[in-house]
Design goal:
- By secondary structure, this protein is an all-alpha fold.
- It is 60% helix and 0% strand.
- The chain has 7 helices and no strands.
- Helix 1 crosses helix 3 and helix 1 packs across helix 4.
Length: 166
């Protein structure tokens, strides 16, 4: 499999959205205080707490684990693709990035479409169009195929955009 497909491009966008979500917040030195990162705790650190609170706290802690360097590099490549291939297509670009962030965060894309006044079917067509544009650009420019972290992507992809099989 040495050829770019819409599925591979979509998986790379999902991985990039997750990397963005998992990056630590930007911290600047404060007048009083410090710029140290938050303490990451595991399940052993929160034993004895209320079970529901423990699950919520562990879920919040698990989301903040920083991504590996290779994933950050792949995320930067996806940013370059977005700037290079989708610059002339602001609508599909915006919808594709919003969809990827919704999938990663477990949010309802349907609710986001309603909130922004987008027709959901049109949004899905724009996602499909954006993926095709990026795929065609990568193939035309002979960009080396680098797969997303398959274990990671398989955990979170609920339903790929319609007609993804084409």
């Amino acid at each position: 499999m040495d050829e770019w497909t819409k599925e591979i491009v979509f998986h790379r966008y999902l991985e990039a959205a997750d990397v963005l979500r998992r990056l630590p917040p930007v911290r600047f030195p404060k007048e009083f205080g410090n710029a140290w990162p938050d303490v990451l705790r595991d399940m052993d650190d929160i034993r004895g707490h209320d079970p529901d609170e423990r699950v919520r706290e562990f879920a919040a802690v698990a989301r903040r684990a920083p991504p590996p360097a290779a994933a950050i590099t792949r995320q930067e490549e996806v940013n370059d693709w977005t700037n290079r291939y989708l610059r002339a297509w602001p609508g599909p670009r915006r919808v594709l990035l919003a969809y990827a962030l919704c999938v990663v965060a477990g949010l309802s894309f349907r609710a986001l479409c309603r909130k922004r006044g987008w027709a959901r079917t049109t949004a899905m067509r724009r996602i499909d169009k954006a993926l095709l544009i990026v795929r065609d650009g990568l193939s035309k420019d002979n960009i080396a195929l680098r797969m997303a972290d398959v274990d990671f992507v398989g955990q979170m992809e609920p339903n790929p955009p319609h007609e993804m099989a084409r």
